[in-house]
Fold this protein.
Amino acid sequence: MSDAPTTEPCDGCGDPTTDALARVVRLSVDRANIDTQRLCPDCFADWIQRYQDRLGSGPSDADGDTSEIIVD
């Protein structure tokens, strides 16, 4: 087995990324693997930001009153 780190392309930008710097994002539903992405640090940071904006808590408000209640 070689001690040399492997270099694979980032799935986001295509730049070569060594194993030591790569981040792997896996999406699984009911234990079935739906998607796996190998990302460089910059693309991973972008992915985290998109996740927070779309699915996470999003940007926080200084006053803490960011929740909405909708009643039909």
